[in-house]
Amino acid sequence: MLSEYLINWLSRSVVDRSNGSTSRPSIALATDIGLVRKENQDRVACLKVGASSWSDRSFLVVALSDGMGGMKNGGECASIAISVFFSSLVRSRNESLIDKMRLAANESNSAVYDYYRGYGGATLSAVLIDLDGSAISLNVGDSRIYAESGVDRRVLNRLTIDDSLEEVVGGHGRELLQFIGMGDGLNAHVKYITPDYDRLLVTSDGVHFIHHQTLQDIFANVVDPSQAVSRLSALARWSGAPDNASLAVLSINRVEQLLLEAKSESLEVWDAFAELHLLRVKQEHVQVPVEAEAKAEAAILPIVKEGIVTEKKPIIDAVKVKRISRSRKKPKEPKEPKDKLQIVIQMDASTEGSDDSSR
């Protein structure tokens, strides 16, 4: 249910450009449709989990996915990729961080493949930071992860290699050799980020087409993550913005502090436009008569829309999403779960948080 809800949420209609209103001192996200494309097929989002019934450990993960142009429904593929990736990370327990990330990438790949049978795909670049400061990077496709040394803040190192013909075997094409949604054979690049690094930059190709030296100079001369994403987004637009431009900037050291403040039962998701706070509500299981059970199907639970408690509806009907399965058989009636997912807060941020003056 979590992955289905996130797919629906990440696929909602949004404005063409984010304004930095969901930024925090430790992390900032941004996305821009650009000046050429008619649709933004990039998705960038963050998941923060407190150690609780959701997970056996606190962690934060940032993920960026770029739907592949020329294939079916790139934006939806990117939404599925991130949603299933996040859901898998929440579910997997007693796994090493490396194994959690690899398993999540494989589940994401299978979900997109099952839906589009190889005719749709997306990139996936992600960084996971644990409560003890351990940081893991994952990359599939040609989105990128960069890191700035905590010792020498003037150098921006690229941590990933594109899964393209050009970079893997020295060819001249940008065609991807692997991507989320390809099916069998996926080998996600997963590794620890060394403690020498602190600030990280995750980008889609609509940002890193800019010359590396220029990226490095801008990144080195800003401290605040929101200012960094604002200036780099503006630079992409000033450079013609031929593609969707999405990015995330985060500080490993500051994220550690953010995790220490995480509420024990909270699960938070946010993108460049809005944020979502979820609680898992435990309910007692009681035996009820058949007549009462029929009435229970219309039982009411509060839902939240744009920060306001609205008309009460069955929680199972509050979220309508496309199923990942292509099967058209009538689904079986769902059994009453022991735990229910309740949407506690959803708010669309509207404050201005950017120092970008280009419009």
UniProtKB/TrEMBL annotation:
Coiled coil region boundaries: none
Pfam families: PP2C_2
Disordered: region residues: 326-359
Domain of life of the source: Bacteria
Domain (PPM-type phosphatase) ranges: 26-252
SUPFAM superfamilies: PP2C-like (SSF81606)
InterPro entries membership: PPM-type-like_dom_sf (IPR036457), PPM-type_phosphatase-like_dom (IPR001932)
Official protein name in the record: PPM-type phosphatase domain-containing protein
Native source species: Pseudomonas fluorescens
